[in-house]
Amino acid sequence: MPTMADVARSAGVSVATVSHVLNDTRPVLPHTRQAVLDAIDELGYTPNTLARSLVTSRTRSIGLAVSAISNPYFTEILQGVEASALEHGYSLLIADPHDDAEHERKVVQLLHERRVDGMIVAPSADPRELVAYLGRHDVPTVFLDRLLDSPEDGVARFDQVCADSAEPTAELVTHLAGLGHRRIALVAGRPGLSTTGERITGYRHGLAAAGLPYDERLVVHGDSEAAGAERATAALLSLATPPSGLVTANNAMTIGALRALRERGLSVPDDIALCCFDDFPWADLFAPQLTAIAQPSKDIGAQAVRLLLDRLAAPDRPARTVRLACAFVHRTSCGCPAEPEHPAQPQQSAKGTVS
């Protein structure tokens, strides 16, 4: 098996120079760096990651704690994280906290004990233990998708990245109102999640913009999962005056809502119009095709890695929150006619922001 000394001889440089190229611990002239990389390629040299971590105090690994990894939205986020991490020479250790506060803290501790250089976490609805652990151990961390409330002193401690939620949700509501719907309901996510709160806010803003009153009976919680949304939608349909338009606040809840409608023999959009937050890779295969808000899932994952690497490079810089734009994907479940000659194209819904 070739050694670092073999690489140094082949490239005509010192072992220290090879080490600097591998560990990125000192600037190396481009032609020298390339000579080292060519020698590594030619010899098939594989660095000893464990030995290198003992020298640099870095394992070049990132811990990723995300619930519901089977959800297409989080799967795409994972793909974005993995691609960006690999591009920068990092590997991933992945855990599923199952949206449970106690389990969340445990899996993050396990990742930390495996000496990851930093964490990317989609926090649960009650992240107090998680935040306390990360703060106590000073773990470089980026929160994604779900944001933390601002601390009392107003000084954010963690970097965060998510998609805009309020304005795109308002856009779905005003779109349905523009089609003549006056009773528009929302199947919201799990209470306590920032995404849930922001989408409820957007729903209310959309009603206000359309001149429609807010009726608390038309907001039900599907707990961010299909089964919960099925029950919540059934409750909406049991109202004395059920809604004629429905907004579902994530892709899993869209599936649950569709099941509830099917159980009652209701047709979309003839009996009830439907718009959803989260686009599906197969949303255009539904009959009717789903009008949806598409989140930039892979970009969220990639941005989380960039924020974490920036934090590792400059531990004392101020924390940042990045919000990325969503896109409105206009199809036919809302009741609009199909446009076969001009397939629906995503239209930007909101601008990304950094704070």
Query: Largest sheet at a glance?
Result: 7 strands, mixed
Written as H for each helix and E for each strand, in order along the chain, the element string is: HHHHEHEHEHEEHEHEHEHEEHEEEE
Q: Can you tell me the residue ranges where pLDDT is under 50 for at least 5 consecutive residues?
A: none
* 3D shape: elongated
Strand residue content? 15-25%
Percent helix, as a range, is: 40-55%
Number of helices: 12
- Structural class assignment: alpha/beta
In what order do the strands lie side by side in the largest sheet?
Answer: 2-1-3-4-5-11-14
Radius of gyration: 24 Å
Mean pLDDT figure: 89
Distance between the termini: 49 Å
How many β-strands, per DSSP? 14
Give me the secondary-structure topology.
Elements: H1 4-11, H2 15-23, H3 30-43, H4 49-56, E1 61-65, H5 72-87, E2 91-95, H6 101-113, E3 118-121, H7 128-136, E4 141-144, E5 159-163, H8 166-178, E6 184-188, H9 194-209, E7 219-221, H10 226-237, E8 245-248, H11 251-263, E9 273-277, E10 291-294, H12 297-313, E11 321-324, E12 327-329, E13 347-348, E14 353-354
Parallel strand pairs: 1-2, 1-3, 3-4, 4-5, 5-11, 6-7, 6-8, 8-9, 9-10
Antiparallel strand pairs: 10-12, 11-14, 12-13
Helix pairs in contact: 1-2, 1-3, 5-12, 6-7, 8-9, 10-11
